[in-house]
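Fold this sequence, please.
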Amino acid sequence: MNPAKRRAIFERFASANPHPKGELDWQTPFQLLVAVILSAQATDRSVNLATASLFREAPGPREMLALGREGIERHIRTIGLFRAKAKHVEETCAILLAEHGGEVPDDREALERLPGVGRKTANVILNIAFGHPTIAVDTHLFRLGNRIPLAPGRTPLEVERRLLKFVPPDYLQHAHHWLILHGRYVCKAVRPDCPNCLINDLCEYRGKTVADA
C-alpha cells in the first residue's frame, strides 16, 4: 500500500470521527490503568459494569489497596480471570504508592514493570492518558494491519513498528482509536461489513464481502 493511499484512509477516519475516544470509563490515569488491566480477554462493557462500583469505593491506589485483594475481587468477579487480575491490581497499587508517589508513571519501562502490564497496555496508557503518539496493537489492529493492509507483519510488534513508520505523523495521535473502532464495528474478524466501510475503495483486501441481495 502506497503512502498516498494510507494518508487518504486516515483523512477519512479523521473526517468521520475527528475526536475518537475509547469505550472504557475512567476519570484519571490510575483508573484507566486499572480498567485496561481488567480488560484483557474481556469486553469493555463488562469492565465498565465492574469498575462503576469499584471506582466509587476506591477511586485511587491508596483506597484500592485498602480494599485488599478480596475486596477488589468482590467488584470484578463477573470478569474473566478476576482472581489473577485482582492480584495484579493490588500489587500495582502497592508499587505506585511505594515508588511513584501514587501516580501512574509517564514512562514505558516503569509501566511495563507493573504487574499485569505488557507492551500493549503500556502503549494504551501512554497514548490515551499522556498523549504520546503510540499505537497499541490488539487483535483488531493486528487484523487490520494485515488485511487492509496498512502495515503487514507476522507479530503484533512488527505491525506496531510498521504502523508507527507508515501512519502519517499528523494522524498518529488518534490512529489507535480509529483502528480499534473500525476493527470492532466494521472490519470484523468474521464477515467484515465491507459494503458499509468508508474506506472500501482504498482497502486492498481480496476477500471483501458484498451486500446481501
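The radius of gyration is 18 Å. Residues 3-20+135-196 form a domain with the Endonuclease Iii, domain 2 fold (CATH 1.10.1670.10).
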